[in-house]
Amino acid sequence: MADGAPPDLRPPGAPRSRQAHLKDGLLLHAESAALYALDPGEAAALDALLGRDEAALARRLGALGLDLAPSPAAPDAAAPPPPRALALTVSQSCNMACGYCYASGGAFGGAARLMPEAVAIAAVDRLIADTAPGGAVQIAFMGGEPWLARDLIRATVAHARRRGGARAVKTGFAMTTNATLLRAEDAAFLAEQGFAVTVSLDGDRETNDRLRPMAGGAGSFDRVARRLAPLLAEAGRLTLSARVTVTPDNLDIPRTVAALADLGFASVGISPMLASPTGRGALAGDDFPRLLAAMTEAGEDWMAATLAGRPHAFANLATALGELHRGRPRSQSCGAVRDYLAVDAEGRYAACHRFVNDPLGQMGDLAAGPDPAARARFLAERQVEAQPDCAGCWARRLCGGGCHHEVLHAGRPGCDYVRGWLDYAIGAYGRLMAARPGWFGDG
Ligand code: SF4
Ligand code: SF4
Q1: Is residue 59 part of a domain?
Q2: Ligand 1 lining (C-beta closer than 6 Å)
Q3: Cβ neighbours of residue 64 under 8 Å, at least 6 residues apart?
């Protein structure tokens, strides 16, 4: 800061230009999501133009050979191909009572029930029939708590393996569970089938038991820790990670990651809570700078370990760095509706597992198949290219416009956080590229 200049009070990553973002000598070309290393003189020249003279900035970027025309065309929303993945909400019921639950206690605001086997079988049959031989599908078991439907999970996996084998379609399986009902034989089954298992846990014993009580009010941490042992023992044959929902009450992310790593998880993903059906637990206002500080601190722990060649469980930074390295511009924050749909216990398709029973995300039913018009409409309306809020945001092709469910129910309260996190991740990318380019696997 020059003598006498006012302090810069903008949040980290605050938008200055829709065309580009600069961080520590790296230029993000907003429309293509590509990163370029600049020499210090060029970085200073661009910095002087960002947010001050967009026409001159465009000319300077053009002189650097960066095409300023809107880059990759948005995927064709009018004709989405059949989904490649399904989430089956096999149990719309739960044995826990987390205050912020997106499924409102597991039943998604309706009556608690399990999915009939005929619904699961019909959903799998259609998914596989719509996939060309040689292709692959992914089936995720969700809830509520999926282990309340133990027999259905086993029957569905066996059926999908048979059907997939007969059509030369590869079948992969995933599950999100609270792990409180897990038995040793379940862990062996998940390992045999090569599942990707995500266990929901919110921190150490004290934090987790406050945020994730059992339905009767007792704590869940000790129960989960006991039941995890057979799953952790199978970690070589399945993909295992913990998923933490972050609310204003568990913002100490480095401590949470450490607690779950101590429990045996090699990968811990952080998921900030932006919208909850009860209104309880959602982050707001001053929570976002605290969230950014906590994520950055966990990121620095990960960087220190990675630069020293040690593993570290914090998954969010590794994921962000991988995406920055691939440099693929996004039209959506996720594959919901385009690649992926959920099926509920009634046999209705929803935009994703969070849209079960939600009128904003209904996508047809099993009898007629996924509704092409509903899918096309949802994609056309929800793509980041169609979001006026995002048009001026340098992060649009990295962020994709936010989670559809959260945006439709809570708007976009966390954009400063999202940009601050991506700004930090770009800086971390430059540091890791300089010190350990081999981490990216192609150096
Ligand atoms: S949702 Fe993402 S792309 Fe849109 S304004 Fe917010 S941070 Fe930017
Ligand atoms: S819409 Fe939101 S909750 Fe649904 S899959 Fe996408 S990111 Fe996840």
Answers
A1: yes
A2: 387, 389-390, 393, 395-396, 399, 401-402, 412, 415, 418-419
A3: 36, 42
Whole-number Å distance between alpha carbons of 41 and 266: 42
* Residue nearest atom 7 in ligand 1 by C-alpha distance: 415
- Choose among 170, 179, 114: nearest CA to 138: 170
For the full predicted model, state whether its pTM sits above 0.85: yes
Note the helical H segments in 204-286.
205-211, 221-233, 253-263
Instruction: Calculate how far, in angstroms, residue 400's C-alpha sits from the geometric centre of ligand 1.
Output: 7
Atom of ligand 1 nearest to the CA of 422: 7
The predicted structure's pLDDT at residue 183: 94
**Ligand 2 lined by 405 (C-beta under 6 Å):** yes
* 28 within domain boundaries: yes
Mean pLDDT by 10-residue block, N- to C-terminus, for the chain (443 residues)? 58 87 95 93 94 92 74 62 95 79 71 91 98 97 92 98 98 95 95 96 85 81 90 93 94 96 96 80 92 98 97 98 94 95 96 94 96 95 95 96 94 95 97 95 67
Which atom of ligand 1 lies closest to the CA of 407? 1
Q: Cα(294)–Cα(311) distance, rounded to whole angstroms?
A: 19
Count up the domains in the chain and report the number. Answer: 1
- Distance in Å, CA 316 to ligand 2 centroid: 16
Let me know if residue 189 belongs to a domain.
no
Q: Which residue has the tokens 């020293």?
A: 308
Q: Which residue has the tokens 């001159």?
A: 56
Task: Specify whether the CB–CB gap between 80 and 349 falls below 8 A.
Answer: no
Closest protein CA for atom 4 of ligand 2? 352
Task: List 166's β-bridge partners, or say none.
Answer: none
- Residue recorded with tokens 């601190």: 297
Tens of pLDDT, residue by residue over 71-110, are: 555 556 667 889 999 999 999 887 877 777 766 666 777 7
Tokens matching residue 409 = 């129910």
| Number of the ligand 1 atom closest to the C-alpha atom of 393 | 8
Please report whether residue 48 resides in a domain: yes
Entry field: residues in the chain: 443
The residue segments making up the domain with residue 36 are 18-71
Nearest CA to ligand 2 atom 8: 403
